[in-house]
Amino acid sequence: MALAGSDSMDEGKGETFLLKAIKIGGVVALYWFISITMVFLNNYLLDSKDLDAPLFVTFYQCLVTVGLCYGMHLLSHLCPGVIDFPSVKFDLKVCREVLPLSIVFIGMITFNNLCLKHVGVAFYTVGRSLSTVFNVLLSYVILKQTTSFYAILCCGIILGGFWLGVDQEGVAGSLSWTGVFFGVLASACVSLNAIFTKRVMPAVDGNIWKLSFYNNINACILFLPLILVFGEVGHLVHFSRLGDPTFWGMMTLGGVFGFAIGYVTGLQIKFTSPLTHNVSGTAKACAQTVIAVVYNQSSKSFLWWTSNLMVLGGSSAYTWVKGMEMKKVHIPQEESKEKLLGEKSGAGV
């Protein structure tokens, strides 16, 4: 999705440095606000003692995303000069092709929310910190891609921070092994989701919004039997706030923020770079942890904070290492292209 007429970075070469800095700062701030608010909002919805139905909460957010995608599709036709959004007409064949990814996607968002439900926001960063480790492991097992020594070293730091964090949560008496278990599963699903996304992209013409539309349609369908099997219908029937507009407003808001995070993520990458986006995400996770500790008026030990720094530092270092490795691969390719062009020019003289 994009607003028509929004300037790209290339078109903004004539802008002053100050104006560019303000734009980038505004985009990064928007990403931080939406991402952090979404985490706290989901924690609020999932931590409700009156409603123990995490699958239904996740199902409803997927339903909101489908509705928003279709709504943006209609608006793009009504306001073609203002909103640009791809066509999202339902196609059963595309749904079937996207289904393997949707199964992984369901696992990712469900385990992610269950982790958040059991460990809270403060420990969430550490509890969900193994995505990078699983990226390396699954890339080798599934894609047969090897990883450099320095990247593996960064993964070792992340693993060390994870285990130290689990230990310190246990010392503090607030450890939930259930939450840790779901966090590990969520991390694995995040990595699998990235791998399967690449495989099914051709089915949606490489468009991330079409993928989101079909992915969430499949998720809504698959969640219904799961809600029945896990007995959440009974919890919903006896839920005292089922007719409360405030409750449904918060539920809908959670879905809107879930939809918006996809847009602001793409916006931040557009105005900065994928590497800067990853660094921003790491810094956001740090701020999110600090906000949670201050909000809950918690007292954390030095080693607890050390575990968070190890996880965030290892993730940042991994991002930097992979960025440097990509540059080393990219530069020789550019040099070979220039050499080839030079040879062609010489042959034509």
From TrEMBL:
What the entry lists under Pfam families is as follows: TPT
Q: What is its main location?
A: membrane
Report the InterPro entries cross-referenced here. Answer: EmrE-like, Sugar_P_trans_dom, TPT_transporter
Q: How does it sit in the membrane?
A: Multi-pass membrane protein
Could you tell me the keywords of this UniProt record? Answer: Membrane, Transmembrane, Transmembrane helix
CC per GO annotation? membrane
**Annotated ranges, domain Sugar phosphate transporter:** 23-294
The membrane spanning regions, by residue number, are: 20-41, 53-78, 123-143, 149-166, 178-196, 216-234, 246-265
User: Which compartments does it reside in?
Assistant: Membrane
Q: Which domain of life is it from?
A: Eukaryota
Q: What is stated as this protein's family in its record?
A: Belongs to the TPT transporter family. SLC35E subfamily.
**Role description:** Putative transporter.
Write the protein's name: GDP-fucose transporter 1 isoform X2
The scientific name of the source species is: Salmo salar
Lineage at the top is: Eukaryota, Metazoa, Chordata, Craniata, Vertebrata
Q: Which gene encodes it?
A: slc35c1
